[in-house]
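Regression test case RT-17, inverse folding.

Input:
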């Protein structure tokens, strides 16, 4: 099939590369000429494990290409995907649909013959209706259908998630369009992947509901971590005890500095705004948004308290800046709250992240960026683990203790146990676990 992907951000680029790997002919379109030039040179705009090789392989096969000019590609396309950004709108938190509607109008002027337009961007309920209206305004008599096909990709594991998904959700009002999408995803039938078809509005809401539920699990276990600290319980054991219940499940039950990234913050906020517009108060989701914001702000205080109440004049080695491992995504990363708070308390921050320092440098001031983990630790008084990259999971703790002047390691991801850290000579502070934890 001939597929056009409008937008070469995280979703568009990963989806386009994977569809081409299925054997479809994919043209990825973006108005950013520099980004397209870089992609044509094999340079990825994001870090995602395996993506560079996947793109190179399918470009070489002739099934994947990149352009700023959509006219010919859209005219020949069977399917056109909208995969443009929908950031939180300044001032009110609603999803900004400017790029979606601009792309819809352009698509409407270029389609030639029956085309399925698929909204893969995360959009509020009813967006598909407006996209359909916009295209109908300019498409004349050209037949088309608008569908919804939300993505459920985890950054750092996106290719695996795309090729082996739990399910494929399609929102369609047309049997003809549904048949086209079934054919598009036919390679996944071998994996017995369920393709579930809803009406378009239900599909749109399903994406928001999924992200809000997962964000709720994170906020919940973080509150349990606070309670565990207060009563002397162990949050990791609590998480295991409830996670073994199949009705609950173990995923997203790791105590942390809070969620971040491209999806959960903006999608939970947009969902609360949808509830307001529909006069349906979403008190649980509102509480999750508030709890997560409070959580991220509280983390610096944990570091300060662990240091005896003051970090003025201290040099802190910060390990990890991205919102999670295996990505360079800094959007709403907990580090964006933690690091400035440490600086405001009088500390000098020397940070290292395997992939996110270039992005972090655009968002943070006054940080010393280290060349590697050892460089970050050298000359520091204490260290803080913010992102649990694999290389931070296998530190030589004895060497860390010998390097840090105050011998203090604050582990905001519970990577280590207190017993092993203390045996190495460290003063150790984790979250949601009592001092006696071993």
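Golden output:
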């Amino acid at each position: 099939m001939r597929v056009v992907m409008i937008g070469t951000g995280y979703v568009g680029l990963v989806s386009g590369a994977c569809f081409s790997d299925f054997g479809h002919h994919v043209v990825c379109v973006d108005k950013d000429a520099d980004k397209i030039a870089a992609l044509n040179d094999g340079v990825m705009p994001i870090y995602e494990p395996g993506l560079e090789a996947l793109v190179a392989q399918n470009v070489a096969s002739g099934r994947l290409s990149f352009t700023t000019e959509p006219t010919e590609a859209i005219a020949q396309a069977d399917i056109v995907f909208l995969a443009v950004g929908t950031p939180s709108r300044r001032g009110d938190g609603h999803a900004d649909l400017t790029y979606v509607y601009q792309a819809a109008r352009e698509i409407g002027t270029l389609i030639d013959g029956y085309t399925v337009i698929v909204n893969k961007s995360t959009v509020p309920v009813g967006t598909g209706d407006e996209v359909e209206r916009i295209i109908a305004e300019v498409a004349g008599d050209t037949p088309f259908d608008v569908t919804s096909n939300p993505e459920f990709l985890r950054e750092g594991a996106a290719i695996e998630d795309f090729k082996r998904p739990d399910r494929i959700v399609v929102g369609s009002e047309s049997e003809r369009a549904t048949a086209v999408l079934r054919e598009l995803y036919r390679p996944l039938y071998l994996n017995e992947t369920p393709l579930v078809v809803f009406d378009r509005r239900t599909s749109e809401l399903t994406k928001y509901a999924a992200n809000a539920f997962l964000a709720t699990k994170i906020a919940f276990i973080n509150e349990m971590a606070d309670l565990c600290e207060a009563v002397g319980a162990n949050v990791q054991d609590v998480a295991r005890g409830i996670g073994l219940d199949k009705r609950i499940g173990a995923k997203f039950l790791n105590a942390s500095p809070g969620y971040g990234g491209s999806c959960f913050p903006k999608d939970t906020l947009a969902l609360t705004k949808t509830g307001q517009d529909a006069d349906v108060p979403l008190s649980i989701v509102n509480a999750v948004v508030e709890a997560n914001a409070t959580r991220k702000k509280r983390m610096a205080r944990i570091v300060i308290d662990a240091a005896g109440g003051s970090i003025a004049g201290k040099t802190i080695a910060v390990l990890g800046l991205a919102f999670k491992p295996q990505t360079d995504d800094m959007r709403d990363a907990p580090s964006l709250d933690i690091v400035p708070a440490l600086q405001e308390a009088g500390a000098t921050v020397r940070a290292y992240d395997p992939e996110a320092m270039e992005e972090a440098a655009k968002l943070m001031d006054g940080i010393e960026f280290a060349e590697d983990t050892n460089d970050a630790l050298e000359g520091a008084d204490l260290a803080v683990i913010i992102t649990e990259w694999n290389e931070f999971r296998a530190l030589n703790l004895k060497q860390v203790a010998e390097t840090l002047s105050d011998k203090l390691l604050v582990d905001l991801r519970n990577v280590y146990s207190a017993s092993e850290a203390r045996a190495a000579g460290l003063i150790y502070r984790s979250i949601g676990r009592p001092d006696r934890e071993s």
